[in-house]
Design a protein that fits this description.
It is a single chain. The chain has a five-stranded mixed sheet with strand order 9-10-12-11-13, with helices on one face. Strand 7 and strand 8 form a beta hairpin. It is α+β, with helices and mostly antiparallel strands. The two termini are 16 Å apart. The longest helix has 14 residues. Helices cover 29% and strands 24% of the residues.
């Protein structure tokens, strides 16, 4: 296989085999997980917004299609495919095309904008990766806190605005849900009401939305357990801290320009791939603070890493395996390990000495997808429970045919395939592209032996 031939974006199966250590410099795309709520926020503020660093992943494509089908105008900047302009509709369309909502999980982010547009939102159940329940009940409780009416049926759900009201909306989430936090924030924005949200999710993706809203005239304040959102000028309560989420607050009259942060999960996946092959690489375009939990996991395994503002440096050539057990426990806590870091870390740990524990109770169906595919490569992983497993390394993997049953399973399989003896063929590449515009191409750029397989 030719290691430096460009991959066709239409390939549905790719082949990977081990080769030289990965090395070089690569820049990650914008984050899919941050772009989706930012696009919904752009629709919710009901003004023209320009978004930069928008990734060309399939889920982002479907969100833009959904926004356009709901009546908003979507335009690309000339010569800049990663720059998107969202403009509010002049009039409410007679018919809305909301069918694309069934293709992506994040379609629920658009409900607040639809409520602002026409007072109701009727959507099919969200799609996306089959890794557990969608948690829509949490969203419905948020809408009910604002006085909205919710109805569910077999094909989907409907939300209708209630009687107009004023004052602060107070609501506490049962756990730190990223989706429900974003929905609560956007619902407050379209209602023009202050929000006091207990047990919020304050992940980088949520902070990106809050930072984008600041130039639009909203301020976020957070204590240890509470997020307050209100129009600019609102006075903080004692003990609360104003989150400095954007470099400067523009005038509300100006058309805001937002930037999608770099994809921390893509950076982490590339870092695991480099480390697995004993390579050295410079991964650019990601905020160092966003990959600190991933960096800590790599260093526990004895893999030197460092961060410099928007660069992650990985030196697998200087690795000194520690044999220490890695505990990769996905959590929604501030500063904790994002669940999407767990699969590539598991693939890396298969080649590292020690007994390692992995757990993801946030996405209870993920291990059911990932473990059987790794087993096809010869991985021996003990399933302690549906959300917890243990493995002892190093293990020797052998190439085989595997399937990307969801985005992160696909990326983890690519990491594992880089060290498996022989050729690994990966199907389901369309799933991988839902979250990454071209992860195989980035690995190819670093010297991975990857090619497309003709159908």
């Amino acid at each position: 296989m030719a290691p430096h031939r460009a991959l066709a974006t239409s390939a549905e199966v790719i082949a990977v085999r081990p080769g030289s250590p990965l090395s070089g410099s690569v820049t990650v795309d914008g984050s899919k997980n941050a772009a989706l709520p930012l696009l919904a926020a752009a629709a919710a503020v009901r003004r023209t917004v320009q978004l930069e660093n928008v990734p060309a992943s399939a889920d982002v494509h479907w969100m833009l299609t959904l926004i356009q089908g709901a009546g908003w105008h979507v335009a690309r900047a000339v010569g800049r495919p990663d720059s998107v302009v969202i403009m509010p509709p002049d009039v409410v369309p007679a018919e809305l095309d909301l069918a694309p909502a069934a293709r992506i999980r994040a379609s629920y982010y658009l409900v607040p904008a639809l409520l602002a547009l026409q007072g109701s939102a009727r959507l099919p159940w969200p799609g996306g990766c089959r890794i557990g329940e969608r948690g829509m009940d949490l969203h419905f409780k948020v809408y009910e806190a604002f006085g909205d009416r919710v109805a569910v049926h077999d094909e989907g759900y409907a939300v209708e605005t209630g009687r107009p009201a004023t004052g602060t909306v107070s609501h506490t989430l049962p756990f730190r849900s990223r989706g429900a936090t974003v929905v609560a924030v956007l619902r407050a924005v379209v209602a023009g009401r202050a929000l006091r949200l207990g047990r919020p999710n304050l992940s980088p993706e949520v902070l990106a939305v809050l930072g984008a809203l600041r130039p639009a005239g909203w301020e976020a304040r957070a204590g240890e357990q509470v997020l307050d959102l209100s129009p600019a000028g609102w006075e903080a309560r004692a003990g609360e801290q104003v989150l400095d989420l954007s470099p400067a607050a523009a005038s509300p009259a100006e058309a805001p320009a937002w930037r999608v942060p770099g994809d921390k999960i893509e950076a982490g996946t590339l870092a695991c791939a480099v480390a697995a092959t004993g390579g050295t690489a410079r991964i650019e375009g990601v905020q160092g603070r966003d990959v600190v939990p991933l960096q800590a996991a790599l260093q526990r395994l004895g893999i030197p890493t460092s961060v410099r503002e928007d660069v992650l440096l990985v030196d697998g050539s200087a690795a000194r395996p520690t044999g220490r057990p890695l505990r990769a426990i996905a959590t929604l806590a501030v500063g904790g390990l994002d669940a999407d870091f767990e699969p590539p870390l598991m693939a890396l740990a298969l080649g590292q000495p020690g007994t390692h524990l992995f757990a993801d109770s946030i996405n209870p169906g993920r291990h059911g997808n990932l473990l059987p595919q790794l087993a096809r490569l010869g991985a021996k992983i003990e399933e302690i429970s549906p959300t917890e497993c243990r493995l002892t390394g190093p293990q020797r993997l052998t190439g085989a045919g595997v399937e990307a049953t969801d985005i992160r399973t696909g990326s983890a399989l690519m990491v594992a395939a880089l060290t498996a003896r022989g050729i690994t063929t990966l199907g389901g590449v369309d799933q991988l592209r839902r979250g990454h515009a071209d992860l195989p191409g980035k690995l190819l750029h670093l010297g991975a032996d990857i090619c497309e397989v003709a159908p």
